[in-house]
Amino acid sequence: MWKLAIIIFIIAAPTLAGIAALVPLTISGVGEIEGWTIILAVALGVIAAVPVSYIVALRLKNLMNPRGGHLV
Predict the structure, then answer these.
(1) What's the CA gap between 16 and 12, in Å, rounded?
(2) Torsion angle, alpha carbons of 1, 14, 46, 37, to 10
(3) How far apart are CA 17 and CA 38, in angstroms?
(4) Are 38 and 25 in contact (CB under 8 A)?
(5) Using one digit for the tens of pLDDT, what is the confidence trace for 32-72?
(6) Phi-psi region for residue 41, left (φ > 0), alpha (ψ -120 to 50) or beta?
(7) 42 vs 63: CA distance, rounded Å
């Protein structure tokens, strides 16, 4: 399951980091923002992608399970 979670992380991390990078830009504007706020937002997006990818991999594993195949 960890292999699947890593593959999902490869997709989810840049997506969540990009979404998180847009948040400070929309709040304070492009010309008035400091660089560290974007870096902090991107780091938080990547950190948030770790549990997201694990939960998605767990759900996919449960769907592929031959015993039940339903979401918990």
Answers:
(1) 6
(2) 180
(3) 10
(4) yes
(5) 888 899 999 999 999 999 999 999 999 998 888 777 556 55
(6) alpha
(7) 31
pLDDT at res. 72? 53
Q: Which residue has the higher pLDDT, 14 or 69?
A: 14
Find the helix or strand (DSSP H, E) in which 70 lies: none
Instruction: Quote the tokens at residue 45.
Output: 């997006």
Three-state DSSP string of 9-45: HHHHHHHHHHHHHHHHHHHHCCCCCCHHHHHHHHHHH
In this structure, what token pair is assigned to residue 3? 């292999």
Residue 38 · residue 6 · CB < 8 Å: no
Would the pTM of this model clear 0.90, i.e. be above it? no
